[in-house]
Amino acid sequence: MNAALLHGLFELLAYGAGFRLFLYLRRREPAHPLADTDHALWIGSAAIIGAALGSRMLWWLEDPATAFAHFPHPLQLISGKTVAGGFIGGWLAVEAIKRWLGDRRATGDLLVYPLLLGLAIGRLGCFLAGVEDGTAGSPTDLPWARDYGDGIPRHPAQLYEIGFCLTLAALLAWRGNRLPRPGDRFKLFMVAYLGWRVLVEFLKPLPYAWFGVLSGIQIGCALALLIYLPHIPRLFGALLWAPRPAPISTTTRPSRSAPPA
Fold first, then answer.
1. How many CB atoms are located within 10 Å of the residue 143 CB?
2. Domain boundaries in the chain?
3. pTM value?
């Protein structure tokens, strides 16, 4: 199957599976802000627009030679995108629309598992699409290296990211109830993913080297991490070392009635 078609098929599957999981989780939390359909439309629209813009803009930073090769031709400028840029752009757009609406409630926790599911499915499509997808790692002689069809063993960076998604999902399922504040799960997801991308990009080819060593994705993720920097010690401290919350009792002991006079 054509690599672009295969990638597109898995991308649609990722969107569909993530959205279905979101709807399922929303039904389980009727008091969540996103259970309000009108509110969810505002948030969802902002997220989609922000993700579309952010994914392209970070790609411009990642591979400026390709992005601006035919500038100002608009089709070339929107021909590439990055997942990390989509997450950053969607997050910033949602925060902006919430501020405009005067809504200070946290909404991101409900999206963490759908995002991880969609990301894992999408990366499987990237892996199957081969080197044409542009997400394969750098050449390596490690025993688990993958030959994508060009005769060069490479880091299977997409499989590394699937492993990251599964590990983070398992960690949140195991210890996520230690995170004390609404919005903490989403903050932890963003911190973990942005940090992961800063590290894993060292195992990928550099389309354009900023400062001789960094990719545009690494720069964008590092800048976004600075916003979350004050929360990082608290988040990981709660996740790794906080005790399990005491279970909430659903029964009450009957009170003793006063003895008859």
1. 6
2. 3-241
3. 0.90
